[in-house]
Each structure stands twice: as C-alpha cells, then as structure tokens.
Amino acid sequence: MKKLFLLSAVAATMAFFGCKGSDSGTASDQGVTVTIHADQGTQKIHKEIYGQFAEHLGSCIYGGLWVGENSQIPNINGYRKDVFEALKALKVPVLRWPGGCFADEYHWMDGIGPKENRPKMQNNNWGGTIEDNSFGTHEFLNLCEMLECEPYISGNVGSGTVEELAKWVEYMTSDGDTPMAKLRRQNGRDKAWKVKYLGVGNESWGCGGNMRPDYYADLYRRYSVYCRNYDGNNLYKIASGATDYDYNWTKVLMENIGNLMHGVSLHYYTVTGWDGSKGSSTEFNENDYYWTMGKCLEIEEVIEKHKAIMDETDPDKNIGLLVDEWGTWWDEEPGTIKGHLYQQNALRDAFVASLSLDVFHRHTDRIRMCNIAQVVNVLQSMILTDQEGTGHMVLTPTYHVFQMYTPFQEATYLPLDITCNEMKVRRNWKEEVDAANAETYRTLPLLSASAAKTQDGDIVVALTNVSLDEEQDVTVNLEGAAVQTVSGRILTSANVADYNDFENPDRVAPADFTGAQIEQGVLSVKVPAKSLVVLTLK
Ligand code: AHR
User: Fold this and answer.
1) Of 55, 150, 298, 325, which residue is the catalytic one?
2) Inter-helix orientation angle 286-297/299-313, to 10°
C-alpha cells in the first residue's frame, strides 16, 4: 500500500502530543480520502489470518472451552455450548493448541485414554495450577472437527523428545497398521484426523528451552525429519520464530533451516513491557490510549523488517510468516488468580484488533496465518466466561471486530491510499519525554482502512477512526469498480474504556450504520470518533 498521509495539526488536547504542520495543505483542507484500487487486487487474504489460540492457561480450556460432560453448564459432549456456538458463528479457520509456553512441558500421552487414568501435572508456567489432562488430543481434535477449523498443534521441543513428537504425529494422522494408529483406535477413534499445521516448539529462545538460534535451527532440522506425512496428510511445519524486534533470530533460521520449514512464526504483543505493571485493561487515560494505538501499529514496521530478512534468502516467498501470538497484554483483573492472565477487553482492544488485521491484510504476500492470544478468558479474548462458574458468558468488543471482519476471509485484498490526519504519540510508557526528541515519538495516522473484494463480488471496506474526539468525513474513491448500494455496521461506545461484563453484556456491540452514502460512484462516510465501521458495497 502506498501511504499518502498528509500531515496536519491535530487538535491535541494534551500538551503531551506534538503536531506536525503541513505547508501544502492539511488533510482537513483536502478532506480525508481513501482511494481504493478495486482493479488492482491480486492477493488473497488467507482466512487463517483470523486464527485463534487455545492454551492450557487459566480458564481458557477448563471453564472456557471445556466444562466436561457432567457439568451443570449446558454443554455438547463436554464443550461449553454457548462458547462453542459463539465460535462457530465466528468462522474460526484455525485453532492453535496446547500452548504457548505450556506446549513445551506438555506430554501428549498423559492426555489420552480413560480420563480417570490420566496423570495430573503441575502447570509450571501458569500459576502452578494442577492440570488433570482431561482435555487432551481427542478432545481438541474433535472440537476442531465440530468447528470445521484446521488444528494447529504446537509440539514439545523444549522438554520433549524427537520420538515423542514423531509418535504424536503418527497417533493423530496415521490410518495404517501402525502402533500409534492402533493405540488411537483403542482409545475410541478409528479414522485418523487431518492435521495440517505443526509447530516445532514455541518461543524456543525463552520458555521453550532458552536456546540460541543456531542450536534451535539444528534441533528443528532434526525434529522435523521424523514428523512424517502419513496417508495423505501433509504437514505444514512451522519453526519457532522470533519475538518482536529479534531480527537475528529470523535471519539465522532462514539461513540454517530455509526450505525445510514451511513457515516461521513471529510473536508481537501490544504490551508496555515485561517488568512491573502492564497497565489496567479498563482504567486508562488518553495518553495511555494513544500509546496503545502507536505500539499496536508498530507491528507493521516489525513485520516489514522480518519480511525483508526473509526476502534475502526466499525472494519467491515460499516460506510463510505466521504471527501466531499477538494482541494486548494488560494486568490481570484484580481478584483473579495470579498467572492466569484473565483481563477485560475494552473498545480500545477492539481497535488494536482492527488496526492489526488491517496491517496483516497489507502483508498477505508473506503472512499466511495469525493467531490472536487467546480465544477465551486469557489476554485479548473473544469471549469471557464467569470465573465463579455460574455459567455466564460475554462476547468482547474484540469478538465483534472479528465477526464484522469475517467477509475479509479469503477475499481479494484491494490496495488503497489514505490521506488523513496523523498525530505524534509518545513511545515510552508512562514516561515524560523530551518533546524535541522525535525519536521518542511514534506517528499515528488517525484513520486505518482495509478493502477487499469478496468471493460474492461485493467490496468490503473497514474504516477505524482512532481519534477520541474528531469525527472523520471520509471520501472513498473507488477506482475500477462501479457500486450502487452501501450498507454497514458500526462498533463504538460512549467511552473508549467501555467493555462488556456479565451485568451489561451488550454495552459495546455492533449496530446498523447509516452514515454512508454513494453519489455518482463516490462514497462518503462520516466515521464518528472512536469507532469502527465495516461497509458492504454492491
Ligand atoms: O500467551 C501467553 C504466553 O505468551 C504464551 O504462552 C507464550 O508463548 C508467550 O510468551
């Protein structure tokens, strides 16, 4: 995408924010415009960009996805019915499991066979909780079948063996007269499952083994040999990739693993840092809010740098980049269990979702999958369930973004140019910085956009106005397409810190949008402050 951000003074209500002036006219002089090149779409937006992540962490699995067959909470064979139905409506394309950090301490054989015989373990990464292994391979893969999504298995390299991982692949995917297929049949599953995505370790530079990149690259080469393709199942093998700004990790893996991997992962959280408080999910001021938008958008620069490294040895882009953990990470909610990462989810989080998805769309040439962390009750969840087990559930503002964006799955990305106001936001969290030092600021465009042509031939346009107080009057020029009608939905709320809870489950919910009109082929949209609008053009 060409960016044509015309710089202008933004009505900065806080002395904290600097403004860039423009001598050639401002966006407000010329209006805010989005020019969509409807005749230039070539890339498909892989539906896997809308992937989810389920980890044995806090109440993501137990109490979130799974309550067991004997629960008072309505369930389908042990899966929470309300959660299952909400996820089904979301068209989840792929679900990653069992971790995260948990994956490198998980021994899959503890999670098969009669439940009463399954050994317990301590979940050392996440609060020391006792894991009873009642949700294991069968429970996960059957859930994926019910959701009609691809499973993404994250294998244990940190504390597991080559043999253990090789046997897991055989257990899940072999249909022959093999020892692991026989064991699976004894456990009640005759036919092999199809498992496409296999992660060879997770965060191997950290909780997955504290390795150096060369050492991990060699381990990857070794482990991946024995993860076989059985009976028509074709694995897409994913190397445990870098965190954030660790470009050297990607470089070493590209040079030393190369085409032996199908994809390499990247983790990027919108987080204030790893030491001390990460900030509250719901109590924040304007500075904190704009910091969050800036940090979120920095993922684009990070992706571009990892992509550039990948291009050096893989110019044809055969190897995928998979952002298999992303999202906001705030302090745990007061009163919840330490280490369980249960956080609320405000309208602010919804914008982190829409801005990130817009970025991912722009990089579909390399990005093959993304998995927001995590699907239920952990970090930037789609769904929160009541921690007391009363059976209540709420859909978060982030869920609504994913739901509103479903038309983008498998649609053709349409390049676009944006002319809009932008503001400078501080780079450091909670620190007063020297306004003269530009390095301490990030530049934040106040409008984010995506456009795509759906498989039905409609054009879908998403516009997020992150300004807290300015409505944006957007002119959308459609080049190479004639449209007659527009309909849309809006996600907004009185306050950007608003969230849904069990008393007010619909405080932040999508509504019909009437602020768009088409005249002589030109679309005009009044996007209210702090809102996301998704339009369908026919
Ligand atoms: O999502 C929580 C944790 O963050 C994951 O387990 C780990 O991979 C990452 O550090």
Assistant:
1) 325
2) 10
